[in-house]
Amino acid sequence: MPASSPMIGAYMTMIGVDCFARTGWLIHALDITNATSDAYYHTNQETALEAAFVIVLGVFGCAFQKWQVNATANRIYYDLV
């Protein structure tokens, strides 16, 4: 569960970027969710780059979430002791 929130956030960020850049990432989302039967997805350099950014943003989000949980847990522990 902790990894799903950052990955969904990274994926939605790339969909937002695609609304401006129009590289075809939104068609990728439609193809994965079967939202339309005529969605055709092809990989090009821009969509491969966006896929890499999804992974990088997801890993960064997971690391930040882990750091935040540890910082909060330490603060609660030391306040109680």
TrEMBL record:
Residue ranges of every copy of the TM7S3/TM198-like domain listed in the record: 5-65
InterPro entries recorded: TM7S3/TM198-like_dom
Gene Ontology CC entries for this record:
membrane
Keyword hit for RNA-binding: no
Q: Where in the cell is it found?
A: Membrane
Topology within the bilayer: Multi-pass membrane protein
Question: Where is it predominantly found?
Answer: membrane
Keywords assigned by UniProt, alphabetized: Membrane, Transmembrane, Transmembrane helix
| Highest taxon listed in the record's lineage | Eukaryota
- Pfam families given for it? TM7S3_TM198 (PF13886)
Q: What is this protein called?
A: TM7S3/TM198-like domain-containing protein
